[in-house]
Amino acid sequence: MPDDKDSNKFALVRSAVRSLRAYHVADATGMIKLDAMENPYQWPDDMIQTWWEQIRTAEMNRYPDPQAGALANRIRAVGLAPAGSALVFGNGSDELLQVIMLTVGGHGRKVLAPVPSFVMYEMIARFTGTEFVGIPLRGDFTLDAEAMIAGVREHDPAVVMLAYPNNPSGNLFDRDAIVELISQSNGLVVIDEAYHMFSHASFIDEIDQYDNVVVLRTLSKMGLAGIRLGYMTGRKEWLTQIDKVRLPFNINILTQLTADFALQNIRVFQEQAERICRERTRVERIMDSLDNIVSYPSDANFILFRCEGCDSEEVFQGLLQQQVLIKNLHSPGTALQNCLRVTIGKTHENEAFLNALSLLVTTDYSLQ
Ligand SMILES: Cc1ncc(COP(=O)(O)O)c(C=O)c1O
Fold first, then answer.
1. In terms of Cα–Cα distance, which of 80, 20, 41 is closest to 344?
2. Helix H segments across 223-363?
3. Per-residue pLDDT tens for 246-266?
4. Which residues contact 95 (CB under 8 A, 6 or more apart)?
5. Domain 7-43+268-361 indexed as CATH 3.90.1150.10
């Protein structure tokens, strides 16, 4: 039992932190893993062999290049960022979100984002002491441009977060509405393009036109979730300030070398993304034919769907019993009531999901 002295110590934890729930990651042991928007494909054997030969010479006794200069050159060379653009790297784009909010957020500042969107926007806002303002999407998860602009005028947020495409809905918000929002914002507009490989839509070639926009990207969804690498580009003046908050040497040497090597083989990842998009079309078509669920059109590598004549919790549990792990987003009384999200996997994984789902959504639970 902790004594009074101990419990007083825990009282030191800031209330903003105490009120948070830790980011939950489900145990996926033995599961068909369709919960986290990962790319399901491994690398070809010969590519693994060449990679291994390259990283074995890494100088592990030295700190890594603090600016990851070779990797930045590679990213620009393969067209993942404009020629000559400035880049800042993060240990995943999650870390960059944190760095952005530490730079422009904090007490008395606000972050504004549509809801539902990526949960870390609110979580990082809260633990950096930044007030979070959520503006509901429309019922079909499109951006409510008027409400967003009204929110920007009322709250004058230091940061506006826009996931393009959005997670968890999977759609691209209207481009003209985003441009209008940028022009109406005094704060920094962060366009988070985590799923750009699957959407073929981007603001990255236009950021020079604006003085208040940065674009965030990650290599996680294209197939490198395990090495944790995100990057940000935008006006040099912004990146110079934001880079002061990034901890030195945040991108380890193995990540730098592995990402550089992987991007020399970018065609492998582009082909995998094309395969995932073809599978997405197929899975969407089959889901559309199922009674009792409504699925939402996706420009990403996952599909959001709502149970309308069935219970999402029972469907989620039923899938788990068939060793299929997806994401349960159900939250009573919110836009995500009865909603689930499935990541596109390999064909046989998607088949396992679709077969189990079609049985579950047509099962009459009242008979059990
Ligand atoms: C919209 C969006 N942004 C950022 C991230 C974080 O990606 P990572 O930290 O792996 O780069 C995610 C992950 O799901 C996401 O959905």
1. 41
2. 236-243, 253-264, 266-288, 312-321, 347-362
3. 999 999 999 999 999 999 999
4. 228, 230, 246, 250
5. yes
Q: Is the pLDDT of residue 364 over 90?
A: no
Per-residue pLDDT tens digits for 112-133: 999 999 999 999 999 999 999 9
pLDDT of residue 8: 76
- Asked if residue 230 has its Cβ within 6 Å of ligand 1, the reply is yes
Using the mean position of ligand 1's atoms as its centre, give its distance from the Cα of residue 97 in Å.
9
Domain 59-265 listed as CATH 3.40.640.10: yes
pLDDT, one tens digit per residue, over 11-30 is 899 888 888 988 888 898 99
Place of tokens 């996997």: 345
Q: Give the model's pLDDT for residue 368.
A: 41
Q: Angle, to 10 degrees, between the axis of helix 347-362 and the axis of helix 266-288?
A: 20
Which residues lie closer than 8 Å to 83 by C-beta, 6 or more apart? 76
Q: Is the CB of 190 under 6 A from ligand 1?
A: no
Give the three-state DSSP class for 190.
Answer: strand
Query: Is 118 close to ligand 1, i.e. is its CB under 6 Å away?
Result: yes
Q: What is the Cα 182 distance to its own chain's centre? A: 21
**pTM of the model as a whole:** 0.95
pLDDT tens figures, 170-211: 999 999 999 999 999 999 999 999 999 999 899 999 999 999
Ligand 1 pocket test: pick from 24, 95, 167, 224 the residue with the most ligand atoms within 8 Å of its Cβ. 167
Mean pLDDT of all residues in 157-162: 98
Q: Is residue 147 within 8 Å of residue 174, measured between CB atoms?
A: no
In the chain, domain spans: 7-43+268-361, 59-265
Atom 3 (ligand 1) nearest CA: 194
